[in-house]
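Hey, I was hoping to borrow your eyes for a little while. I've been staring at a protein lately and its backbone has me curious. You're getting the sequence in one-letter code plus the fold written as tokens. Would you mind checking whether the tokens look sensible for this chain? Here's the protein in full, and shout if anything looks odd to you:
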Amino acid sequence: MGKKGKLPVGEVDMSAAKYEPQVIKAPNLTGFGLKLFVKILEAPLLGPLLIYFMKKQNKMIELLRHTVIPETPMFKPEFPPQEPEPAVIILEEDGKPEDRVESALKCLPHYDPASLCNVDLAPFRYWKIRDYAHAYRARLATPSMVAEHFISVMEEFRNKKPPAPLLVSFDAEDLRKQAAASTQRFQEGNPLSILDGIFVAIKDDIDCLPHPSKGATIWMHEVRPVEKDAVSVSRLRRCGVIFVGKANMHELGLGTTGNNPNYGKFCRTTRNPHAPERYTGGSSSGPAAIVASGLCSAALGTDGGGSVRIPSSLCGVVGLKTTHGRTPMIGSLCDSGTVEIIGPIASTVEDVMLVYAAILGSSPADRLCLKPAPPCLPNLSSSGSLNVTGTLRLGKYTQWFNDVFSTDISDKCEDVLNMLSKNHGCKVAEIIIPELNEMRDAHVISIGSESLSSLNPDCYDGKLSKLTLDTRTNLALFRSFTASDYVAAQCLRRRLMYYHMEIFKNVDVIVTPTTGMTAPIIPSSALKFGESNLQVSEL
């Protein structure tokens, strides 16, 4: 095969780019078949041959080894200066988190306490952060009362059949202690912020004392003890947040279903609260599920390729992947990459805004290297914000938008676009995003190489065999990537960033279904040994 060359990105006619749907060619395996497959993958001769064949089938070899990419590599995201946005409020990164939360609170629409009384309008409703805040201040409830209810529900979930493992680390006495301190602050009239007394779950790859951080493995806490809160957790703690424990996840974040056969019969795969026979999505499976269950107002997850957004979508809640570097990664298991972020999950956009305001703030290193624009929030409290909504230009790549597992998904999303146009005056514009398949490959190589780099010392120390079969399948693929593959992926990153910046000259938002399928059914054969399904990961 001879080498191919791509045009310099500035010479590409974006309007002439063709959409190329591509189905990942990889086996869907569970049970004994998965065990045998992993054994072959890890064999000295057969493994590399099998991986080479799979990569060639999916055209990765052609892209990485036989294509000249003229752009220079972009090893870290670069954010060119942008025009100031209308109707936003700038937040102070170096200020106190509780002050940022207060600023975010002023951005929200007027709150009507009477909404709490309309419980008969629906069989179930999510209590928002401001609902709890009002109930505490009006002496309708206390954080200690909520804590006792939460503890009883955790016991109920523990005894469910099948088990519904939302938390992998839970300390009832620590929860009572936090709640008592918050209750006392309310009794004294000194709550720390609107987040005081709000119950929040933390994904198992983010440090939160007194809990270990296992990354949903059975061994990570043995080699990496938790000595203090992650920076994002400490900022929430300053605001009075009550932490309920560590939420379940796809092991080490290396999967999008949420499947995890670790921990024995009481702590297996988290199930979707809306349909227990289905997956939650991952890798932030526990955080999304506990919010969707109505047990927590919010949760923190991590996201490098959909791990906050996918489970939020499949569980019917709101998840935000922030700009890389906007939230601090210090104190998480994935703190050394170039794609991962810590982001909030909540039942509403306004609750996501409040939690995001508390945790944001770039590290000094990221601020120097990435040069991000000042953080801001939309001002939803003013009537002028409605006028600004009407000026939004929504970019839709129709062929990509409609490339979903079921037309029910694209039809429902189309209904939302029509509503935004009809009720709010938003304009929908057709766009084209070139090289989407290249974007997928560049992402897999980047996040895979960075994950492997952080795990290699432990793998060589004998921990590889203690990982789930699904994780070992992914690591075998990541181990096949070379240094030149990684550099090629970063050259593609620069091309793809250019395309997106060109698109954003004409639109404000790119709209697409969050996931290309609804929550998959959990195969019974996947509960004991896990499941490897890379086709689902790409949907």
User: Anything to note?
Assistant: DSSP finds 21 helices and 17 strands in the chain. The chain has a mean pLDDT of 93. Residues 436-463 form the longest helix (28 residues). The CA atoms of residues 34 and 262 lie 16 Å apart.
